[in-house]
Amino acid sequence: MRSLRPIVHDTGSLLAGMPALMPGENYTTPDNLEEVKDSNSKSALERYIYKLKVVSPDQRYVKIVMEKARELGEDLSETDVKVVALALQLNALLLSDDYGVLNVAQALGIEWKSVRTKGIDGNIKWEKFCPACKRSYPPEYKVCPVCGTVLKRRVRGKRKRRRDG
């Protein structure tokens, strides 16, 4: 008998109660649990916390995810980086509605499912640009070094998601 694929939940999936519905091994990171703040959500989480394995990803996977996010121009939080890294490390299905998380996951070949939204239909590469002087900058820049204007983000390239079938 084939075992079920592991499932990694981001905070949105936890708040939607998905671990209670998913068979097999369910994982999340300590950071995702810390994001559950309000008492109603914590109370709901307590009903299925026993189904969750709380694991921190290995640093080498965190580094891979950070590099891919930077390459795509995605500004992921530390929590988002870790949940994607855990899915990569475990070769798991990732449940998330965060488009940035899904963009990086897809670029890394991680299978994903959205929880409450349609999800993404392709990979996007972003770039930072100055709306005043029209120059482009690497993703880590926040302010134009030439004129001091706060940089904005725009699509640099998009690749449609391949459908299995």
Automatic annotation (TrEMBL):
<dbReference type="Pfam" id="PF17146">
    <property type="entry name" value="PIN_6"/>
</dbReference>
<keyword id="KW-0540">Nuclease</keyword>
<dbReference type="GO" id="GO:0030688">
    <property type="term" value="C:preribosome, small subunit precursor"/>
</dbReference>
<dbReference type="GO" id="GO:0046872">
    <property type="term" value="F:metal ion binding"/>
</dbReference>
<dbReference type="GO" id="GO:0016787">
    <property type="term" value="F:hydrolase activity"/>
</dbReference>
<protein>
    <submittedName>
        <fullName>Ribonuclease VapC5</fullName>
    </submittedName>
</protein>
<dbReference type="GO" id="GO:0004521">
    <property type="term" value="F:RNA endonuclease activity"/>
</dbReference>
<dbReference type="GO" id="GO:0030490">
    <property type="term" value="P:maturation of SSU-rRNA"/>
</dbReference>
<dbReference type="InterPro" id="IPR033411">
    <property type="entry name" value="Ribonuclease_PIN"/>
</dbReference>
<keyword id="KW-0479">Metal-binding</keyword>
<dbReference type="InterPro" id="IPR039907">
    <property type="entry name" value="NOB1"/>
</dbReference>
<keyword id="KW-0378">Hydrolase</keyword>
<dbReference type="InterPro" id="IPR029060">
    <property type="entry name" value="PIN-like_dom_sf"/>
</dbReference>
<feature type="domain" description="Ribonuclease PIN">
    <location>
        <begin position="7"/>
        <end position="90"/>
    </location>
</feature>
